[in-house]
Amino acid sequence: MAHLSITNAAAEQIHRVLDERGHGLGLRVSVKPSGCSGYSYVLDFADEAANDDVTFEEHGVTVFVAPEALEMLDGSEVDYVSEGLNRFFRFNNPNVKDQCGCGESFSV
């Protein structure tokens, strides 16, 4: 069975954005072919669940994963980090074999 974990920092940010939006079920994660290394993460907020979504719940939030991305994301941790003035969701993904220098894309 696939596993995806959500840090407390990521959960707090998901809660914060959903509260600001005033609606939504959680964070939706998928991947798309992109960049110089092969794939990039696609993040959006889910307003409804698709029939084939795989869901992961932790710290009171739900992350919806597209089935075609599940194998690439299995075992990943979703985190929310601050680096200088930048704040963003980061994936600690054990399946990544290589990523581009700018960190925008990865290969598995």
Automatic annotation (TrEMBL):
Tell me the GO molecular function terms: 2 iron, 2 sulfur cluster binding
The UniProt similarity line reads: Belongs to the HesB/IscA family.
Entry protein name: Iron-binding apoprotein IscA
Gene Ontology CC annotations of this record:
cytosol
GO BP term, example: iron-sulfur cluster assembly
InterPro entries this protein is in? ATAP (IPR016092), ATAP_core_dom (IPR000361), Fe-S_cluster_asmbl/transfer (IPR050322), FeS_cluster_insertion_CS (IPR017870), HesB-like_dom_sf (IPR035903)
Locate the Core domain: which residues?
Answer: 3-104
The scientific name of the source species is Halomonas daqiaonensis
Superkingdom of the organism of origin: Bacteria
Query: Pfam families, from UniProt?
Result: Fe-S_biosyn
